[in-house]
UniProtKB/TrEMBL annotation, chain A:
Main location: membrane
Protein name (record): Peptide/nickel transport system permease protein
Membrane topology summary: Multi-pass membrane protein
Family recorded in the similarity comment: Belongs to the binding-protein-dependent transport system permease family.
Keyword entries, A-Z: Cell membrane, Membrane, Transmembrane, Transmembrane helix, Transport
Protein origin, superkingdom: Bacteria
Transmembrane segments: 46-67, 108-134, 141-162, 168-188, 219-241, 277-297
Automatic annotation (TrEMBL), chain B:
Organism: Sporolactobacillus nakayamae
CDD domains on file: ABC_NikE_OppD_transporters
Family matches, as PANTHER family: TRANSPORT ATP-BINDING PROTEIN (PTHR43776)
Domain of life assignment: Bacteria
InterPro entries: AAA+_ATPase, ABC_transp_ATP-bind, ABC_transporter-like_ATP-bd, ABC_transporter-like_CS, Oligopep_ABC_C, P-loop_NTPase
Keywords, comma-separated and alphabetical: ATP-binding, Nucleotide-binding, Transport
Record has rRNA-binding as a keyword: no
Record-linked Pfam families: ABC_tran, oligo_HPY
Protein name, per record: Oligopeptide transport system ATP-binding protein
Residue stretches making up the ABC transporter domain: 12-262
Length: 310, 332
């Protein structure tokens, strides 16, 4: 660039004339946006506990084959045995080790929770960005489609779909993923509508950036905060959804283990009253997983959405 | 700008530019009328000059400016730039021409993406148009930051770490990255402190000299426009009222609106404050329902019958005015 502006004449003078109140306070270390979010997040005690618990569950899921004392599908001779040294959490009515099933159940919950949310966040972001940015009939079409999807009784549709395509871990993840996007799409569209009027988006257009670049590099990063919070809560509800489906026999089917299908045994009064090792542990795990994720969501929301609180 | 205008080829020509926004009502969004934000505006911009556009809020000056860079799609009219009609070319063709046409925004707080570091923000235009490699772009970012008076160590900072004046410099630097010929300055100093305003105006002036830039300078403050412009277009309710050199506009205004606008400008000298002033009354009529005839007749102290019936044409050679009774002739 052949710009000759005699910088010696201008620069010191210009830089020096800014009054001290307007000078940028020099930081020892530049704090990035991420650092700031992290710092605020870490102040949220429950969220930190949530992260620890969730990481533990994640670790259990990843290391299930290693840490599980038994094969979760292996049938032993003792049925409905109370907890003992051989079976820490006893055995179920078929004679399988409850502890091992609990550990492998974590895999199911994590897969559904994260998998389904990843699918629907991706769909929701793309549809929301397109609807909000282009407007007009595209927006109309996508938003009416969203309305249609939102007016379904969510649980019933999932139940019906799963029973048609067959209950399996992959199928429930897919179905929850394909049905969950409307909330995200609306959220994204709303943010896009306000962000696209910002001058920095207009500047991007004036600078001749491609539309995908504007959408994904300029608009999306500024719309990400509420999406992230929403997705976190989504993980919790997907975990509950899987547990409910499995409980009804429409999710993960025995002999594969899931916290939901383990709870099925609690249908009987005998089990409820006299064999608590069959239902308290899976119930507790679901509770822990959902609570930890929700606390993380709370912490994220507080860290991200309060712009001014330092 | 010493050559007579008729001997220079215009850099950009605006011909009968119109921008109407439909007013929609009801469940089926029926169009019930139009807001005539810009209504038949024509002017030429010559290379190296600064064309100021002034007028009250809502007079269509910003819409005109944004139409020039196709941030608004004009309803009708032509914008001729380098042999092409910007108002009617495809977005793809427009993207290629965007390297020559840039815009500086009014609000330095919303014109920079808060998630991007300044260095990336400035390098982005070059990289997006594949005009430079990463290393080259980085070098050019250093150069430009020096030119607009920002230490290059600030490259890794985010926009929120800068003051308004500094942000506006970054906005100017970004517009300069593609080495444009024409820059639309959309009220670039209105959001800044007075002391910072002068710095930014001086920077713009210096840049114009050294980089051979042409500006369209939009503002509602007459001071800034007077300081930087070679010629001034006065707009009212989407129409051009008067177009002349800065000197003529300030010393010899022909349109009553221009005169009133000049009178509305505060006088720094307290001893001259009690001079006889023409004060404008009433509000700007709605652009959705502009008055018949001359759009200014509802507030014009000299309005006659013909003003209420027939809209005056913009006439004149170097000093154009749209008025049935321009000031010279009225006095004569």
């Amino acid at each position: 660039m052949a710009m000759k502006l005699n910088p010696n004449k201008n620069v010191p003078e210009l830089a020096g004339t800014e009054t001290s109140g307007q000078m940028v306070v020099p930081f020892e270390k530049e704090e990035t946006y991420l650092h700031m979010i992290m710092r605020r997040f870490l102040k949220h005690r429950l969220a930190c506990v949530g992260v620890v618990v969730f990481l533990l569950i994640l670790l259990i899921a990843l290391l299930a084959p290693v840490i599980s004392p038994q094969d979760p599908a292996k049938i032993f001779n003792e049925f409905e045995a109370a907890p003992s040294a051989a079976h820490w959490l006893g055995t179920d009515p078929v004679g399988r080790d409850v502890m091992s099933r609990l550990i492998f159940g974590a895999q199911v919950s994590i897969t559904v929770g994260i998998g389904a949310v990843a699918i629907y966040v991706a769909i929701g972001i793309v549809l929301g960005l397109v609807a909000g940015y282009f407007g007009g009939w595209i927006d109309m079409l996508i938003m009416r489609l969203t309305d249609v999807f939102m007016s379904f009784p969510y649980f019933m549709v999932i139940l019906v779909l799963v029973s048609i395509i067959g209950p399996s871990l992959f199928n429930i993840t897919l179905v929850i993923g394909l049905l969950g996007w409307p909330a995200i799409a609306r959220l994204v569209r709303g943010s896009v509508l306000s962000i696209k009027e910002m001058d920095y988006v207009k500047a991007g257009v004036a600078l001749g950036y491609s539309t995908p670049k504007i959408l994904f590099q300029h608009i999306l990063p500024n719309a990400l905060a509420p999406i992230l919070v929403n997705a976190t809560f989504g993980v919790a509800s997907a975990i509950i959804m899987e547990a409910s489906l499995s409980f009804l026999g429409m999710g993960v089917r025995p002999p594969a283990a899931s916290w939901g299908n383990m709870l099925t045994q609690a249908e009987s009064i005998t089990v409820l009253s006299s064999q608590p090792w069959l239902w308290i542990p899976p119930g507790l795990m679901i509770l822990l997983a959902v609570l930890s994720v929700n606390f993380i969501g709370d912490g994220l929301r507080d860290a991200i959405e309060s712009q001014n609180a330092k | 700008m010493n050559m007579p205008l008729d001997q220079v080829k215009p850099l950009l020509q605006v011909k009968h530019l119109k921008k109407y926004y439909p007013i929609k009502k009801g469940v089926i969004s029926k169009t019930v009328g139009y807001v005539k934000a810009v209504d038949d505006v024509s002017f030429d911009i010559y290379p190296g000059e600064t064309m100021g556009i002034v007028g009250e809020s809502g007079c269509g000056k910003s819409t005109t400016g944004r139409s020039l860079v196709r941030l608004e799609d004009p309803t009708a009219g032509q914008i001729i730039f380098q042999g092409k009609d910007l108002a009617n070319i495809s977005h793809k063709e427009m993207r290629k021409l965007r390297t020559d046409l840039q815009i500086i925004f009014q609000d330095p707080y919303s014109s920079l993406n808060p998630r991007k570091r300044i260095g990336d923000l400035l390098a982005e235009p070059l990289l997006a148009h594949k005009l430079a490699t990463k290393e080259e772009a980085d070098k050019k970012v250093n150069e430009i930051m020096e030119i607009v008076g920002l230490p290059k160590q600030y490259k890794n900072r985010y926009p929120h770490q800068f003051s308004g004046g500094q942000r506006q410099r970054i906005g100017i630097a970004r517009a300069l990255m593609l080495r444009p010929k024409l820059i639309i300055c959309d009220e670039p100093v209105s959001a800044l402190d007075v002391s910072i305003q002068a710095q930014v105006l001086n920077l713009l002036k210096d840049l114009q000299k050294s980089l051979n830039l042409t500006y369209v300078f939009i503002a509602h403050g007459l001071g800034a426009v007077k300081y930087i412009s070679d010629r001034i277009t006065v707009m009212y309710l989407g129409k051009v009222m008067e177009l002349a050199t800065t000197r003529d506009i300030f010393e010899n205004p022909k349109h009553p609106y221009t005169e009133i606008l000049l009178n509305a400008y505060p006088i720094p000298n307290p001893h001259e404050r009690n001079r006889n002033q023409m004060v404008i009354e009433g509000d700007v009529p709605s652009p959705a329902n502009p008055p018949k005839g001359c759009v200014f007749h509802t507030r014009c102290p000299f309005a006659k019958d013909i003003c209420r019936e027939k809209a005056p044409e913009l006439t004149g050679k170097a000093h154009l005015v749209a008025c049935h009774f321009p000031i010279d002739e009225r006095n004569a």
